[in-house]
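A further point concerns the way the authors explain their paired sequence and structure data. Since the whole study asks how a given chain folds, the encoding of that fold should be made plain. A single example would do more here than another paragraph of explanation. An entry of this sort, consisting of the sequence and the corresponding backbone structure tokens, reads as follows:

_____
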Amino acid sequence: MAIANGYATLAEVKAALRLTDNVDDTLLEGAIEGASRRIDGYCGRWFYKTAATAIKIYPFDYYNLPVQDIANTTVIVKVSTAGGTPTVYDQTWTQGTDYQLEPLDAGLNYRPYNRIVAIGGKTFPIQVTPNIAYVQVTAEWGWEAIPSDVRQACILLSIRGFARYNAALGIVGFNDMAIQVKAVDPDVRDMLNQYRLLAVA
């Protein structure tokens, strides 16, 4: 099988396992993809980059538009000015003149952008009751590159997932001894905690 949006390669996981044959490649690829999606769920975001995709978004206020992670500055912001439920987004804003991507130091820190701010006298159109998404953003969503910590966490989780094929109930036996597999790997948790998006109730 091909790994879809994996955070580690088959070669990296096999190298960590010191495997040189191809007998378990299919199982390993499944473990890598499963580990990658588990990381997405734990962090509340994904670390691969999508193709350019348009989504409709509700502004937070007249100046701030919180967004999912945006990988780079290849962004198109359009606004509907007709009122009512938008069928067309007729006004295209110019980056650096009408809006800016934030945080401003995202590129310096190898992080994605997560907010669009209206500048130059522009404001986002808002309707609260009912909420109507008057803004459309086209971007490559996610991260430009997979962080090294995420890659290492994926390798460890993939190895763990692969090993579970021999310990379906979470108990690994060695001669007359047994070891229970713990629910959370503390090393993986420490690697990923800095990337978690915490929900606010």
Observations:
- The first strand starts at residue 53 and ends at 57.
- The helical segments are 10-17, 25-43, 148-163, 186-192.
- Strands lie at 53-57, 64-70, 76-79, 91-93, 99-102, 113-118, 135-139, 171-174, 177-180.
